[in-house]
Amino acid sequence: MMQRLAARALGMLIGVVALFSSSAWAHKPSDSYLTLRAAEGSSAIAVRWDIALRDLDYVLQLDRDSNGEITWGEVRTRADDITQLATSRLALSAADQSCTWASTGPLQLDTHSDGTYAVLSLTAQCGAAASLQAPLKAVYSLFFEVDPSHRGLVQWTSPGVESVQALIFGNDSAEQTLALQPAGAWQTLRQYLIDGTWHIWIGYDHILFLLALLLPAVLVRSGNQWESAPRFGGAVKEVFKVVTAFTLAHSITLSLAALQIVTLPSRLVESAIAASVVIAALNNLRGAVDSKRWVMAFVFGLIHGFGFASVLADLGLPSGALVLALVGFNVGVELGQLAIVAVFLPLAFSLRHTSFYRVGVLKGGSVLVAILAAWWLVQRLFDL
To answer: What is the pLDDT of residues 264-275, one digit of tens each?
Structure first.
């Protein structure tokens, strides 16, 4: 009875990851990027807003000829509609007075790691709230009705303050206050810790890489066959080595990239991450790397760290609390990983004797992961 429940739970875990992974182009969900800057002594707020064309197309049907490609001409003819949609989904107010929107430049395009974005240049005029002596209240609702997981990533610079404050608008945090003073150390640490945890949970390629390395942890190789690990402690030790190696590796490159000491092209990084998932999954079928899976975790973890860094760059790093932000994000990623391991390992260990695990989960799951990651690799290599 317990094995049946464990098998069902493990099947659901892998099925959920595979379901959401199959619809994910990259390791990021739907995000838009807002940069808001207020000048001292002025009631105007300069706004740059980057919105993914794929999200705009879903709502506004930008691809008029339905050929699967969105051209600059198709975007340009809908510039007013894009601006109207955006400004109707972000309400700013100061001292209980609503701010009004105005365009300050033509619509442009920019490329992010996950595709092309429309770039709006706007000004929010807050009228009588001269010099913004009171905090701004912001209510964000872009795309929530069609994608509850959508987020608005904000970098806010208040009047007379050079450090940037990072905020995240989500379906459950649609209304926030843009403070006039930077957040304290605890608030900064807490925010980036949450960001790191959330990112690993929706980072499907990172999750699948980790799961591919963990699948054999409850088994031992004997010749050409997998046999059950005799003790739970041995499985825990194997998992500890893999997770620790992955953590150390991606922490190194995340820090180097976030501090702009080493940078790599995003397309190269994303392609290499997909390739790492393919290799880790195929290794489970051939067993070429068995007792040294922690080495594989470390080597490819260095590449995954650059992927984490691209997300951290999109979130924005507060110049006055750079170390805290890095530490918080790293700790959040580790907590997210540990949560996955805590669910997976007991279920896998209880099923290690069964053909369901050895054939269905280890072999079948590895084949599924390899196919999915190979498709990601093709998408990213050829920019499909």
So the answer is: 888 888 899 999
